[in-house]
Specification:
The complex is a heterotrimer of chains A (354), B (285) and C (302).
Chain A: H1 13-48, H2 53-58, H3 64-73, H4 80-92, H5 106-141, H6 146-160, H7 163-177, H8 202-208, H9 212-249, H10 252-259, H11 264-301, H12 307-316, H13 320-348
Helix pairs in contact in A: 1-13, 5-6, 5-9, 5-11, 6-9, 7-9, 7-11, 8-9, 9-11, 10-11, 11-12, 11-13, 12-13
Chain B: E1 7-18, E2 21-33, E3 37-41, H1 48-56, E4 63-66, E5 69-72, E6 75-76, H2 82-91, E7 93-96, H3 100-103, H4 110-121, H5 126-139, H6 145-149, H7 158-170, E8 176-180, H8 188-205, E9 208-213, H9 216-222, E10 225-230, E11 233-239, H10 249-257
Parallel strand pairs in B: 3-9, 3-10, 7-8, 8-9
Antiparallel strand pairs in B: 1-2, 1-4, 1-5, 5-6, 10-11
Helix pairs in contact in B: 4-5, 4-7, 5-7, 7-8
Chain C: H1 3-12, H2 19-35, H3 38-55, H4 57-60, H5 92-128, H6 130-144, H7 148-159, H8 163-172, H9 176-190, H10 193-200, H11 205-241, H12 253-260, H13 269-296
Helix pairs in contact in C: 2-13, 3-5, 3-13, 5-6, 5-8, 5-9, 5-11, 6-9, 7-8, 8-11, 9-11, 11-12, 11-13, 12-13
Classes of the chains: A mainly alpha (354), B alpha/beta (285), C mainly alpha (302).
Chain lengths: 354, 285, 302
């Protein structure tokens, strides 16, 4: 009986909290830097814009005097960094300029179009999570056998298919030929404008005002684009789940769990999956963020009145304020969601990373 | 001793089917285990760990296990159902692995992992399980069980991790513990503490221990009986006291390689291998 | 002994006698691994097929895919027009074949831009360390955090629509992962003995980066590049579909889908076939990339 040594956990809770805070601070710093980078790029793009910003305001029949006045007003005589700071100031105030196409502040336009994109991307991501994760786990558990091969093929095809083309084919089959779902757009024309927009997400608004017909119609319009967009999410999530799961299943703590006499399903879902889930947080964040931007193509195919379509239409009308404003907002969401999932990951994972 | 026999292994084989052909990891190992401390010593690849895994029915995929007899307290482990095997694992035979850094689940608290081992085999309330866990942590000489209960594996040191591992594997009160290099990943100073804890627990509970190690010295001082394995076979079996009189040239080689204070050797001896060791003594096939 | 047997023996000899032999052996053993993986082989066949078809385009096709034949508009697939004809009577099969050249052109151009930039930034950051590393990696992270398609769209809006600008925009949003990979590799070998030896021989930093660090990054960069190819092709096709990439009448597959879209219901083959072409090629790159990863980096994957 040589040992009476007790022990203490090597890292005290106070220390753990401190290093957790440091790492969260790190996330915010990189969020800020990335955002500055994003605005710098849109600023440069705005500078490189072939059209003369002064002419766009005064028109080409204005006198030189008026032109010069506006030129000074816009601060174009100042050094570039002053102009950039001014631009940042405007952004912080929420001033994204006025859209030529709609003659309204770009921000207002975006607030109007954004919920549609949010709705689409959210449903698609949920689909990816609830179908993709079980598929990935199934494949990993049966590695090298037919469930694995099927999941691999599905996810590779989902990964490789051009989403806009897939959407077109789906429209052809399920809408034009089979008539199972409603066609392009968010609602049938005669339902338009009945429900008061409260959240901007049609199904929620319809349910809140008890208009179940509209709810069903909106759902029927949503199903197809959400599934198409969800295909990518599903493929990506399934693939990553499989590879994380394979990695975890080969770890030694799995053997420990089996040695304890634990049933296999508990080993998989109780032990391995907990670790996989921690890793999946970032993947899900990444998927959601990339679906927000990836919906551009889906929105075009399904005439979905979201931010992607807004940007595309503005682009074709040379409405640069709208394009850049849209880019900034989508970019900020993209960056924001990624950072958020990174943050969540750090909070959830007990092993505080450097 | 036969009445207290816990485990009997006769002619155990483990073979792996690899792309380069059949690999025999264990070929023809036989031994009995009572309420005693049995050491299995051998170099890496000698099949000692594979023997432990095969007893638990946890041979990695691609491997096949065969034996003339593989019995735990009268239960044939060779054709036992998965359900029976699960009851035996943890409840009857348990295993302590090498490195607590990898063998504990990094995202679960220490307490819940220990508690879980109990709850698989005993239906008790959460509260009782928690009390038993504290008790167990105290038994492995952990001073603040309440605090360690809530800790995550990365927050504890290697020595404490291994004591936690011992607590976890002992809590369902198995009859046999297989300890697979339980101290090899630890600092020398901590090794002795952990061994002492293990020794106490085994003795108090009257369990059988299979201690697997590459360290002949350690095994000789810790175990009652020793099996020496080479290339998947047991080349020698003796009690710890008789080790100096071992017959097999491999064992002799190993014993001679141990540095000693009194020997006055000029050079450290090197183990010379003989291909004839690869054929089993009095080959029967 | 046949020459084949001696060659095999030379390739599998346990102790290589020359640098060349060692190098060939590594490739050969990798190839043996790779050959066993049916999925990767399918990928390789698809990509080889694409290259062969692109190279032999003048001999495979009967037209240049641009000439109009208004008498034969929107003809369904037949023995004469395997994939039918489009709204201007052009043979879709021929356009697909010529389009394969554009696809390869895009992929090659993006790789040529992206790999050197990524390698340069990554190896310099990893090898130099310190503030150089911090600054370069911050920059990389910023680009890594950007939404790819939207940024490419904004850039194309400024630079003007067209294939080259689309490629440039894609390249600008693609280089960052390569810098990350190259940095990781450079970090792990920075302190290894042979780099130390090279430093003591007085080889310059540039020399070490170019001769020693870069070659070691190549295998992981190759794997990543192959896997990224599919993404590049899909983004390029997406830009083409939106009308921001290759402009008509160029037989770029994405643009072909865009033009054929209105004929989807009655003449399904017009937009469907280019889509299948994109799917097959990007699938090919994904399969090949997966296989290469298994060979080069057995840890990830299976």
């Amino acid at each position: 009986m040589a040992s009476t040594a007790g022990g203490q956990p090597t890292a005290g809770t106070g220390l753990a909290l401190q290093s957790k805070l440091t790492s969260i601070l790190g996330v915010f710093t990189s969020l800020l830097l990335t955002f500055i980078g994003l605005t710098a790029i849109t600023f440069v793009i705005g500078r490189m814009m072939p059209a003369d910003p002064v002419l766009a305001i005064v028109g080409d029949r204005a006198s030189q005097e008026v032109y010069d006045q506006v030129y000074l007003q816009l601060g174009l005589d100042k050094p570039v960094y002053i102009q950039y700071l001014r631009y940042l100031e405007q952004l912080v105030e929420g001033d994204l300029g006025t859209s030529i196409m709609t003659a309204q502040p770009v921000l207002d336009d975006i607030i109007r179009f954004f919920p549609a994109t949010l709705e689409l991307a959210t449903v698609a991501t949920l689909l990816g999570i609830f179908v993709g994760i079980p598929m990935g786990v199934l494949a990993a558990v049966h590695q090298g056998r037919w469930p694995d091969h099927i999941v691999r093929v599905i996810s590779l095809v989902g990964y490789s298919a051009p989403i806009f083309w897939l959407g077109m084919v789906a429209l052809l089959v399920f809408y034009a030929n089979l008539g199972w779902v409603a066609g392009p757009g968010r609602l049938d024309v005669f339902y338009d404008g009945i429900v008061e927009p409260a959240t901007g997400i049609l199904m929620v608004d319809a349910a809140m005002s008890g208009e179940w017909d509209i709810f069903h119609n909106a759902l029927s319009h949503l199903v197809l684009p959400a599934m198409i967009l969800g295909t990518f999410a599903l493929a990506y999530i399934a693939r990553m789940t499989r590879s994380f799961m394979l990695d975890q299943l080969s770890q030694e703590y799995i053997l420990t769990a089996r040695v304890k006499g634990m049933p296999e399903y508990k080993v998989i879902w109780g032990h391995a999956f907990r670790n996989v889930l921690v890793q999946l947080i970032t993947i899900i964040g990444l998927t959601y963020a990339s679906l927000l931007e990836g919906s551009v193509l889906t929105e075009t195919v399904f005439s979905w009145p979201g931010i992607g379509q807004y940007i595309t239409n503005s682009l074709f009308n040379n409405d640069m304020n709208a394009v850049l404003g849209g880019t900034i907002v989508v970019g900020a969401c993209f960056v924001g969601i990624n950072m958020l999932s990174d943050l969540l990951y750090r909070l959830v994972d007990p092993r505080i990373r450097k | 001793m036969s009445d207290s026999k816990l485990l009997s292994v006769e002619d155990l084989h483990v073979t792996y089917n690899t792309p380069t052909g059949l690999v025999r990891a264990v070929s023809g190992v036989s031994f009995d285990l009572g309420h005693e401390k049995l050491g299995i010593v051998g170099e890496s690849g000698s099949g000692k760990s594979q023997t432990g895994r095969a007893i638990l029915g946890l041979t990695a995929t691609g491997g096949t296990v065969g034996a003339r007899r593989l019995e735990f307290k009268g239960t044939n482990l060779l054709n036992a159902s998965e359900r029976t095997m699960r009851q035996i694992r943890g409840g009857g035979i348990s295993m302590i692995m090498q490195d607590p850094k990898y063998s504990l689940n990094p995202v679960m608290t220490v307490g819940s992992q220990i508690e879980e081992a109990l709850l698989i085999h005993n239906r008790t309330s959460k509260r009782v399980a928690r009390e038993r866990t504290y008790e167990m942590l105290r038994a492995v000489k952990i001073r603040e069980p309440e605090r360690v209960y809530k800790a995550y594996p990365h927050e504890v040191s290697g020595g404490m991790g291994q004591r936690i591992m011992i607590a976890m594997m002992m809590i369902p009160e198995p009859d046999i513990i297989i300890a697979d290099e339980p101290t090899s990943a630890l600092d020398v100073t901590v090794q002795l503490q952990v061994l002492a804890v293990l020794d106490d627990m085994i003795r108090e509970r009257g369990m059988g221990l299979i201690f697997i190690s590459h360290d002949l010295n350690l095994i000789a001082s810790f175990c009652d009986r020793i099996l020496i394995m080479y290339d998947g076979r047991v080349v020698e079996e003796c009690t710890a006291a008789e080790l100096e009189q071992a017959q097999h040239p491999y064992t002799r080689g190993l014993v001679n390689c141990l540095p000693r204070l009194d020997g006055g050797q000029d050079e450290l001896p090197v183990l010379k291998r003989d291909p004839s060791w690869l054929t089993p003594p009095g080959a029967t096939r | 002994m046949t020459t084949e047997a001696t060659l095999r023996g030379w390739l599998l000899a346990e102790i290589p006698t020359s640098k060349l032999q060692a190098r060939c052996q590594r490739v050969f053993i990798g190839w043996l691994d790779f050959k066993r993986n049916p999925i990767a082989m399918i990928g390789l066949l698809i990509i080889l097929g694409l290259v062969v078809v692109a190279a032999l385009a003048p001999w495979i096709t009967t037209s240049n895919g641009l000439e109009l034949d208004l008498a034969n508009r929107l003809k369904p697939p037949s023995s004469q027009h395997w994939f039918g004809t489009d709204e201007l009577g052009r043979d879709i099969f021929d356009r697909i074949i010529w389009g394969s050249r554009i696809t390869l052109y895009i992929v090659a151009l993006v790789s040529i831009i992206v790999v050197p930039i990524g390698l340069l930034i990554g190896t310099v950051a990893g090898y130099m360390g310190g503030w150089v590393d911090t600054v370069l990696m911050r920059l990389t992270d910023i680009f890594l955090a950007f939404p790819r398609l939207i940024l490419a769209m904004a850039l194309v809006a400024v630079l003007g629509r067209g294939l080259e600008n689309a490629v440039l925009a894609i390249a600008l949003t693609t280089w960052s992962p390569f810098a990350r990979i190259a940095r990781a590799e450079a970090l792990t070998i920075r302190n290894s003995e042979f780099i130390l030896a090279a430093q003591m021989q007085g080889i310059s930093t540039v020399g070490i980066l170019a001769r020693h660090v870069t070659p070691l990054c190549m295998s992981s960069v190759t794997v990543r590049l192959t896997l990224d190819m599919a993404g590049i092709i899909l983004t390029a096709a997406g830009l083409g579909f939106l009308g921001l990439g290759a402009q008509p009448p160029t037989p770029e597959w994405g643009a072909m889908i865009s033009l054929g879209r209105q004929y989807l219901i009655d003449q399904w083959w017009v937009p469907t076939i280019p889509g299948i072409a994109i799917l097959v090629v990007s699938l090919g790159f994904n399969l090949l990339g997966d296989g290469l990863r298994d060979v080069f980096d057995p840890k990830s994957g299976n």
